């Protein structure tokens, strides 16, 4: 199935493309300026990461993969809580902000439904088949036994039932209006001294429910309204799979006969008495042994064109008829439920018919479903002539539409195709300067992690795209403590790329920067490669300055303790990333020696000395017993700096020679000081033979 966004209208080529571009922008793009700052708190990112981190830590050291399914209930609860928060705001009269709250509410609610769908389908797929505890001869099983066996052995039926159950649970709440009709017996019409206003003679009010059909009369307007409201409430309950609540509503409204008329769908079985007296269940037959006959009656009522549309929908839903139900469907979910309800009922009927249980008759036929598969259902929804239905709801709601597409791909097990299409669309939008909307980006990153934990065949490049883009987004929001967690699910080269991209922007104190390395280590990332990439990227920024020779003579005449430039300070601080832990010392020495050589070529002894002082004092100590060329070079730089410092001190002392008229004692003291400094300088210069220096 080619996945398309259902809100895109058909028509001329130009209008279709314009509509598609607008829809994709709404779905994938960021909100108008101002919404991001008002509604995005970052709390959700922390909470999602906390659940994932907890699971990862719990599974650490085991051979099993991290199954994200284990934390879907937490994702579901988090989204439901956020949706509830925005539901209180969406009715606000705050204009612009109210629109944003409604938009956020739709996003969070749709995401809640999607995580819930994944939970339900995974549970249905993973459920092990259990014996029904009956004899081997299926012909002796009750109707309920046959359907229970079908549920356990037929994956398609179990899948259809799970989707139908999900569609029932995600239906929005409603406030039913249930009242009791006001009836006036015929005898009261003949009471001569009645002070009440009797109903009109052409509109009698009978307690006989068949009176309106038999006598071809109508109820009073108020009773018509009461009956319509009751029928709508019963339909809404049945749409949500709440048959028992629908029955109670009928009884409450004073129509127990209607309660019985909708109760014939229970499968026939023979119950065993519970040993626990609390349940007080009697042993014996339960359910409807002539269920097909009852369904045929429901079908006949559903086709009654003179009946209220909700009454037709009630009986159409009970028997699995689609045409009588669709007129009262107002959303994508309603239409999908009507189709799935019909599929489930047709499979139940087919199973019972295999064993001669019921079936259609010439007098009372059963509905024949025109839908043969789930794919047919969603193809029909996506290609419907109803513009509102293609949009996913009565009103245009782009975010809800995209989640409907995602839910469809999950149900049809076409998530691979979905990922490929969404990456292509997201890249196109990103190229036009409209990045993927942060809410959808977060969802897609976790969705990819779930898919990967359940199947090894998820498209790798497309999955990495969503995870890396989410990591990049976290970095852009300075959520550096979360980025390594998600980067750990990427290939090593992308781990290095993403983590080094934010480390090179951190320029705080050394202790603060070291804290950022802890999160990288805790998530088992390649810290060595990340730090190398970070330092090299920072050094590349000063590469042009390092290649300049400059005024060597003027630089050499400058004091070794003279101030250094900001660019030089930045290069020196870059090396600190490799100076936190001894395992990084060798890489640090490589780069510090390189920088020192560059500075010496420029005559920047002062910068080279500042670099040397910034390094850990023990950076070459581990090589003292078996020194390497790298450590040799570093140690010789130390002697060079010591010699230059002694030379500058001797030179400065030479400039303080007392004049001819100075006291002899002062001249003697100066000569002694010069001699001592000169001997120290000679000793420092002669501690290593020059050929050893050259050889190193």
Automatic annotation (TrEMBL):
<keyword id="KW-0653">Protein transport</keyword>
<keyword id="KW-0509">mRNA transport</keyword>
<dbReference type="GO" id="GO:0017056">
    <property type="term" value="F:structural constituent of nuclear pore"/>
</dbReference>
<protein>
    <recommendedName>
        <fullName>Nuclear pore complex protein</fullName>
    </recommendedName>
</protein>
<dbReference type="GO" id="GO:0031080">
    <property type="term" value="C:nuclear pore outer ring"/>
</dbReference>
<keyword id="KW-0472">Membrane</keyword>
<comment type="subunit">
    <text>Part of the nuclear pore complex (NPC).</text>
</comment>
<keyword id="KW-0811">Translocation</keyword>
<comment type="similarity">
    <text>Belongs to the nucleoporin Nup84/Nup107 family.</text>
</comment>
<dbReference type="GO" id="GO:0006606">
    <property type="term" value="P:protein import into nucleus"/>
</dbReference>
<keyword id="KW-0906">Nuclear pore complex</keyword>
<dbReference type="GO" id="GO:0000973">
    <property type="term" value="P:post-transcriptional tethering of RNA polymerase II gene DNA at nuclear periphery"/>
</dbReference>
<dbReference type="Pfam" id="PF04121">
    <property type="entry name" value="Nup84_Nup100"/>
</dbReference>
<feature type="region of interest" description="Disordered">
    <location>
        <begin position="1"/>
        <end position="21"/>
    </location>
</feature>
<dbReference type="GO" id="GO:0006406">
    <property type="term" value="P:mRNA export from nucleus"/>
</dbReference>
<keyword id="KW-0813">Transport</keyword>
<feature type="region of interest" description="Disordered">
    <location>
        <begin position="190"/>
        <end position="216"/>
    </location>
</feature>
<dbReference type="InterPro" id="IPR007252">
    <property type="entry name" value="Nup84/Nup107"/>
</dbReference>
<comment type="function">
    <text>Functions as a component of the nuclear pore complex (NPC).</text>
</comment>
<keyword id="KW-0539">Nucleus</keyword>
<dbReference type="GO" id="GO:0031965">
    <property type="term" value="C:nuclear membrane"/>
</dbReference>
């Amino acid at each position: 199935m080619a996945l398309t966004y259902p809100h895109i209208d058909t028509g001329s080529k130009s209008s279709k493309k314009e509509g598609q571009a607008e829809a994709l922008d709404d779905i994938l793009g960021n909100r108008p300026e101002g919404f991001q700052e008002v509604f995005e708190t970052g709390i959700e990112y922390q909470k999602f990461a906390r659940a994932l981190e907890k699971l990862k830590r719990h599974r650490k050291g085991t051979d099993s993969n991290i199954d994200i399914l284990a934390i879907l209930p937490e994702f579901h609860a988090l989204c439901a809580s956020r949706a509830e928060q925005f539901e209180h705001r969406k009715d606000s009269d705050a204009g612009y902000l109210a629109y944003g709250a409604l938009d956020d509410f739709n996003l969070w609610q749709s995401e809640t439904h999607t995580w819930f769908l994944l939970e339900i389908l995974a549970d249905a797929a993973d459920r092990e088949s259990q014996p029904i505890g009956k004899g081997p001869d299926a012909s002796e099983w009750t109707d309920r036994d046959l359907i229970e066996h079908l549920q356990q052995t037929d994956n398609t039926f179990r899948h259809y039932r799970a989707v139908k159950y999900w569609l029932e649970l995600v239906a929005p709440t409603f406030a039913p209006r249930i009242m009791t009709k006001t009836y006036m017996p015929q005898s009261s019409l003949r009471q001569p001294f009645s002070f009440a206003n009797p109903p009109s003679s052409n509109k009698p009010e009978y307690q006989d429910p068949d009176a309106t059909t038999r006598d071809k009369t109508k109820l009073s307007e108020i009773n018509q309204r009461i009956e319509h409201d009751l029928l709508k409430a019963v339909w809404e309950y049945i749409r949500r799979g709440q048959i028992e609540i629908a029955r109670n509503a009928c009884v409450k409204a004073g129509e127990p006969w209607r309660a019985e008329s909708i109760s014939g769908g229970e499968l026939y079985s023979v119950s065993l008495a519970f040993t626990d007296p609390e349940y007080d269940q009697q042993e014996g037959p339960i359910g409807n042994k002539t269920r097909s006959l009852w369904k045929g009656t429901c079908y006949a009522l559903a086709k009654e064109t003179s009946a209220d549309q909700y009454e037709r929908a009630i009986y159409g839903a009970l028997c699995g008829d689609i045409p009588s139900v669709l007129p009262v469907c107002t959303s994508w979910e309603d239409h999908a439920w009507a189709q799935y309800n019909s599929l489930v009922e047709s499979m139940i009927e087919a199973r019972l018919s295999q064993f001669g249980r019921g079936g259609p008759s010439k007098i009372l036929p059963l509905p024949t479903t025109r839908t043969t598969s789930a794919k047919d259902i969603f193809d029909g929804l996506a290609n419907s002539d109803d513009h509102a239905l293609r949009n996913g709801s009565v009103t245009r709601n782009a975010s809800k539409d995209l989640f409907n597409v995602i839910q469809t791909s999950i149900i049809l097990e076409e998530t691979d195709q979905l990922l490929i299409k969404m990456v292509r669309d997201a890249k196109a939008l990103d190229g036009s300067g409209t990045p993927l909307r942060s809410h959808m980006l977060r969802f897609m990153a976790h969705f990819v992690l779930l898919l990967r934990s359940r199947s090894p065949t998820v498209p790798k490049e497309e999955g990495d795209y969503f995870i890396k883009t989410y990591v990049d987004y976290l970095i852009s929001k300075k959520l550096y403590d979360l980025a390594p967690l998600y980067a750990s699910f990427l290939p090593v080269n992308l781990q290095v790329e993403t983590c080094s991209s934010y480390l090179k922007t951190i320029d705080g104190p050394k202790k603060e920067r070291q804290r950022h390395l802890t999160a990288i280590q805790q998530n088992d990332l390649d810290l060595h490669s990340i730090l190398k990439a970070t330092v090299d990227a920072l050094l590349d920024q000063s590469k042009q300055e390092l290649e300049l020779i400059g005024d060597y003579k003027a630089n050499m005449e400058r004091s070794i303790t003279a101030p250094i430039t900001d660019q030089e300070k930045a290069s020196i601080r870059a090396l600190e990333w490799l100076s936190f832990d001894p395992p990084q010392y060798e890489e640090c020495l490589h780069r510090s020696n390189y920088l020192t050589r560059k500075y010496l070529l420029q005559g920047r002894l002062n910068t080279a000395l500042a670099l040397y002082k910034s390094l850990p004092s023990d950076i070459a100590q581990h090589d003292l017993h078996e020194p390497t060329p790298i450590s040799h070079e570093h140690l010789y730089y130390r002697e060079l700096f010591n010699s230059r410092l002694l030379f500058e001190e001797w030179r400065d002392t030479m400039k303080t020679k007392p004049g001819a008229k100075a006291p002899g004692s002062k001249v003697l003291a100066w000569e002694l000081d010069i001699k001592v400094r000169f001997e120290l300088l000679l000793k420092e210069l002669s501690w290593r033979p020059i050929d050893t220096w050259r050889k190193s």
